[in-house]
Every structure is written in C-alpha cells, then in structure tokens.
Amino acid sequence: MLFRVVRRLPAYAVVCGAALFSISSFADTSIFTALDNPATAKKSFDGNVQAGYSAQTGNTKNSTLSADTTMTWFHTRTAYSLWGSARNTSSSDVRSSEKYQLGGRTRYNMDDDNYLFGQASWLSDRYNGYRARDVATAGYGRQVWNGPVHTLNLEIGPGVRHDEYEAGGNDTKPLAYASGAYSYKISDNAKFTQGLSVLANDDTTVNSETALSVAINKDFALKLAYDVTYNTKPPSSAPNKTDTVTSINIVYGL
Length: 254
Hints:
Strand 7 (114-125) and strand 8 (130-146) form a beta hairpin. A 14-stranded mixed beta sheet has the order 1-14-13-12-11-10-9-8-7-6-5-4-3-2, with no helix packed on it. It is built from no helices and 14 strands. By secondary structure, the protein is mostly beta strands. It has one domain (16-252): Beta Barrel (Porin), CATH 2.40.160. It is globular and about 50 Å long.
C-alpha cells in the first residue's frame, strides 16, 4: 500500500528542462493535491509527462536528471489518478541524491461541495534517509471554491505510514492527514497555485508547493515553482529538517 509523502532533494536550486505537462492540474508529485474535481473537468482524461536534464562541466562537474508523470481519468462523479517521478543528481561523478515515487488517488463527489477521497504512495529517497516509505490515507474533502477564478479544496482523514530507514530499522505508525489546494486564475494566460499537506504524528511531515504558470502560446507555458518539505524528526542519516527545491520548467499541455 502506498500514499505519497515527501522528502525533497536539497541538491539543486534551479532546473530548466523540457517538459510535457498539463497546466490544468497540480504537477508536483510530492504533494499530490491534484485539482481533480470531476464536476468541472472539461475532458475525460488529463495527463502530463515531464522530463528535465541539466549538466555543468569545468571547474565543477555535476548533473541532474528528472522525470514525472501524472494521469487523471474523469467520470460523472469520480476521478482516478496515477503518478510517478524519478530524480537523480551527481556531483564529480558521484551520485548525491536519488528519489523515486509511485502513487494513486481516487475521488468521489457526494454533491457539488463534498467528496470522499483515498490515496496511496510509495517513496524511496535513500539520500534523505528513507529506503522506502509507504503511506495510505482516506477521508473527507470540501470544495470550498469552485472557480472559474478561484478554486479551493480542503481534505482531512486518517492514514498509516510505514518507514524503512537507510541506516536500518523500520517503523509503522498511524497518522492524521490534512491538505489544502488553492488555484487563482490571474488572467487567461497566468495561474497561481498553492498546495499544502500535513502528515501528522510524533514524526510530522509538512509539504508546500507555491507555483506560477504563464502561457507562452496555446501549447507551451512556463512554470516557476518553489517546494518545501519540513520533517520534525528526520532520519539520523539525514538530520536536516527542511528541504527545498526551486524549479523552472517549459510545459507542454496535452
């Protein structure tokens, strides 16, 4: 069983890459608060594939390779999503970070404002201390605002997390999950999004993504995002509590 929880890579600050990616939903696969309301979906499928690569040579030598995908299927009252991501960073031919994730999510609209959800993910982030982390949550969501300019949905529910640490040992604990996803359509060509999720127990993880997407033309857009992950009790092999990633991507909408 899997739900998605996060450890961010501190290894790079800015990545410019080529991307295939739908700007109608949250792209970040570490926070997965997809704006997946079937009541407002304009098509039965929305998907994205994103890939990026950067390299530096000379006095220093480093490289970063990333790939992401998110796919959502919409029906009259339900939506189903799958996602995955991979990140690898090396410095002077030595790997300095490595992160992989897989997950899924479902949403069922009870009426225009209330819905039920379930989600699960698997994470491997060895350089941030986790050989594996499985998380599953389910609960109640509220569609507070439903566009077209502002959208806001809030979620809450119980869950469970199983951690396997890179330094050895494992742990399984219940948790309380809460999240919020906000979107503001600034203009026909620009959109601001803010996502926040909390996985709370005696080892609480807080995830945030702040992003701005600006359309270049009908097919391409530029996305600037700033992601933060905070762990109250990080693994002993990776003691820093806060990880951040700043990214710039060229986006192609499917």
